[in-house]
Specification:
The chain contains five helices and nine strands. It is globular. The strands form three sheets. Strands 2-4-5-9-8 form a five-stranded mixed sheet. A two-stranded antiparallel sheet has the order 1-3. By secondary structure, the chain is α+β, with helices and mostly antiparallel strands.
Length: 203
Amino acid sequence: MEKLLDTLASGIHDARNQLLIAESQLSERERQHGIDLGEARQAIENAASRLTRLLAAYRLMQHDARLALQPCRIDELCAEAVLTQRALFAASGLELTLDCQVLDEWVCARDLVADMLNNALQNASRHARRQVRLSAVSSADGLCLLVEDDGPGFAQLPPQATGSGLLLAGRLAELHQRGQRHGHLQLSNGGRLGGAVFALTLP
């Protein structure tokens, strides 16, 4: 497992550096030709930022370190994820709705949770027919962040070949701990939209 993480971390580091080089080249073309490539540069910067957080998350998994937890406004976290993915969903002709019923602060690793939500929303956009919903509710189990779509759902449960994003999300969820309770990730079919359901629960 450690060798696998080292290999993945090296690849992520190289990909991030290539993106930063591309962003620098776009900036130079803007200066030379007087054109506006701001949207392209922003997309590259967002991708590079996500790779940076992914690299940090893999290092956490490798060394089993403690997460940097801080109070976080859940409604702001969810709204930020929706805003980040707005252009992707608009280009795909999909409706992305937000139903956040948690207005209080919650202690979590904010940036890593935000990255998990963005990854889940992007995955849902690839399979949804018309709509995706991000919601947040609280219960006796803790905070539950849900991404649901109206696509065909998972062909197998649990998915036979969990991608690095799902593997990482599950591990990072477990690293969230309060007392004897740990966070967890659950994947299912059905939900309010009838397709795949990504449910991240944090204690």
